[in-house]
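I hope you will forgive my troubling you with a question about protein structure. The matter concerns a single protein, recorded as an amino acid sequence and a row of C-alpha cells. Please examine both parts with care and let me know of anything in them that strikes you as inconsistent. Here, with my thanks, is the record as I have it:
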Amino acid sequence: MTVGLLTTGVVVATTLAAPAQAAWTPTVRWHGAVTQACKKPLDNGKVRVRVRVNNTHGTDRAAGGLNRVRANGQPGNAWTYTRTVRPGAVSNAVTLDFQRGSRVWLIVGSQVGITGERAYGLGALDRC
C-alpha cells in the first residue's frame, strides 16, 4: 500500500513538473545556446510573444531576439533583443505583441551578430 502511494506521488510530481518545462518552445540554436519562445493571448485580440536565450549548455556568450515578419517574408523593423549572457546562464525574457495569425522572426546571436534565424507561425509556439 505504501509503495502504491509513493509510486502515485512520483507520477503526480512528474506530471505536474512537465508543463513548466513545456512552456518554452526551443527554436534557433548556436554553439549550445537556444532561443526559446512562448506566447500569451491578450484581451485586445493580440498575442504577446516572450523570448529568452537559454545558454546553460552554450560554449560562447549569446543573445536572442525577435521581430515581426513582413508580408514579403522578411524581418520587419521591430527588433527586440535579450541581454547577452555567458555560458551556463539564461537571459531575461523580452516581449513583443503580434496580431493573431502573424509570424515571428526568431534569432540567436553572438557578440558580433546574428548566427541563426528563422520565421515561425505563432501556432508553433507553446503557451506561456
